Amino acid sequence: MAKKAFALRIDEQMLQALQHWADDEFRSVNGQIEFLLRDALVKAGRVKRVAPQPADLSADESADPVPDVGSADSH
Predict the structure, then answer these.
(1) What integer pLDDT is reported at residue 58 of this predicted model?
(2) Of 1, 41, 71, 74, whose CB is crowded by the most CB atoms within 10 A?
């Protein structure tokens, strides 16, 4: 599923708190916000929990829009 851009106005202190939290969990602020929203949606019963995507998508190359430059079969 393609992601859509969304502008967000946020209080500076809240943004700083999110940045620290994201840093602690090795995520971007955007990734942290997505994580928190997804978690809240699941807990509220608004969406089903999605299984994590496997790291190796070699079985379904169409799911990876960016070619793997490092692999031998991409040359």
Answers:
(1) 57
(2) 41
